[in-house]
């Protein structure tokens, strides 16, 4: 039986593919998750896929938090990886494949195109992915046009994803997952951001009363205890 749940992950090549992926998902009635960040390298994704990501990889906070694979529902059976375009000659694919396998999925790795005529780490990645028993799509062998020497034209992006998706549909079931399903973070923000409004209200209230924060919190707690005590006494008297 063909897989029905997929994920597309990676750099800007993956971001470009997601728009066509939505058409494929609608056409075929499958689920295709999307996790992408432009300008990212292979070495960061092994950790992100397992733990989720915090601030942006280039020192900014403008990127939304990425979900770890085990938070996606339904969990992807095949992960289509677009990574290598921003790497050097020897990117390490193993942490990414390890994270995907830990989630019980198979990998279809879409290799980098000829980056301004250079082969980058294509042959190294192809050998590394094959050594792990996973599937590699050699986009350089497809010899399709690029819009800017790095990114594909719209027809090229569609052709790459069509080829990768065809390979993904033929994948056998992956290994048993070793990571339990997790809690998905709020879309676009880390979970700890939910505490900010509470903290802001406490600080604002303390400032209003011109008291140190600890004193104000203690006052509130004592007032609450006093209210509970009075209510309890009132109940006893009515009895």
Summarize the structure.
With 239 residues, this protein is of the alpha/beta class. It has helices spanning 12-28, 42-51, 94-102, 122-131, 139-142, 154-169, 196-208, 213-238, and strands spanning 5-10, 31-36, 78-82, 106-110, 135-137.
Descriptive overview:
This protein is of the alpha/beta class. It has two domains: about 5-170, SGNH hydrolase (Rossmann fold), CATH 3.40.50; about 190-239, no CATH class. It has eight helices and five strands, in the order βαβαβαβαβαααα. The chain has helices spanning about 10-30, 40-50, 95-100, 120-130, 140, 155-170, 195-210, 215-239; strands spanning about 5-10, 30-35, 80, 105-110, 135. It has a five-stranded parallel sheet, sandwiched between helices.
